[in-house]
């Protein structure tokens, strides 16, 4: 059973990584429009992808109400950040904030940190603003704007669900294996974040 769960997790994570390109959030690099472009945007940067799956993993690590409140906080604040980006309201250190989210979530997972739900929501919400800003900065004008928003919101929610699913699969493992798996995932995220930072 344990090897079966491990195989599913590794294959699923590898599949997600295969859909990405080794780029950052690429604020301002061209105009994208429509639902499909919005949906693909979170998959176009390893930083976005890891952070969004990491939010789901972190929510599963906390358990209880955090399973839906932490991802909801991310999606809500991401939309708020998207409004800032779309309207050209300045937000400093966007790329740094996005990479910092990957590192911070990786550390939270690696050390099995159990924050109160409200604090976890606030922390994740702050990071989400930077991710949303990157999406909003590429939001197309006109009628396609809302379909673009729908696309990246749906993709984000699905990545959160995927992360929660992996996290809940870890809970079926023996305690020592669960902690080891969480540390391995968190450690890998942290290393990737530090590489992106450099």
The coarse overall form would be globular
Strand/helix succession: HHHHHHHH
* CA-CA gap between termini: 39 Å
* Count of domains: 1
The biggest beta sheet reads:
none
Question: How much helical structure, as a percent, in the residues?
Answer: over 70%
| Share in β-strands | under 5%
- Determine the structural class based on helices, strands and strand pairing: mainly alpha
Return the average pLDDT rounded to an integer. Answer: 85
If helices are DSSP runs of H or I spanning 4 or more residues, what is the number of helices? 8
Please give the radius of gyration in angstroms: 16 Å
- How many beta strands in the DSSP annotation? 0
Uncertain regions: pLDDT < 50 for 5+ in a row? 8-32
Transmembrane segments: 41-60, 92-110, 117-134, 146-168, 180-197
Protein name: Urease accessory protein
Organism: Filomicrobium insigne
Keywords: Membrane, Signal, Transmembrane, Transmembrane helix
How does this structure look, described?
This is Urease accessory protein. Keywords: Membrane, Signal, Transmembrane, Transmembrane helix. It holds the Pfam family HupE_UreJ. This protein is mainly alpha-helical and about 200 residues long. The chain has one domain. It is about 75% helix and about 0% strand. The chain has helices spanning about 1-20, 35-40, 45-60, 65-85, 95-110, 115-135, 145-170, 175-195. Mean pLDDT is about 85; it is low at about 10-30.
């Amino acid at each position: 059973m344990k090897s079966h769960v491990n195989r599913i997790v590794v294959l699923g994570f590898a599949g997600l990584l295969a859909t990405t390109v080794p780029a950052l959030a690429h604020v301002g690099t061209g105009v994208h429009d429509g639902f499909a472009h919005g949906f693909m945007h979170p998959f176009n940067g390893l930083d976005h992808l890891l952070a969004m799956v990491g939010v789901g993993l972190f929510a599963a690590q906390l358990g209880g109400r955090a399973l839906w409140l932490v991802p909801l906080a991310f999606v809500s604040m991401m939309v708020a950040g998207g409004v800032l980006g779309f309207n050209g309201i300045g937000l400093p250190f966007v790329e740094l904030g996005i990479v910092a989210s990957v590192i911070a979530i990786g550390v939270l997972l690696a050390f099995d940190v159990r924050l109160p739900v409200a604090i976890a929501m606030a922390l994740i919400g702050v990071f989400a603003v930077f991710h949303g800003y990157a999406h909003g900065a590429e939001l197309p004008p006109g009628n396609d704007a809302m379909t673009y928003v729908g696309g990246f919101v749906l993709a984000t929610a699905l990545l959160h669900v995927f992360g929660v699913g992996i996290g809940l699969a870890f809970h079926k493992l023996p305690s020592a294996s669960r902690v080891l798996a969480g540390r391995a995932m968190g450690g890998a995220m942290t290393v990737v974040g530090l590489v992106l930072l450099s």
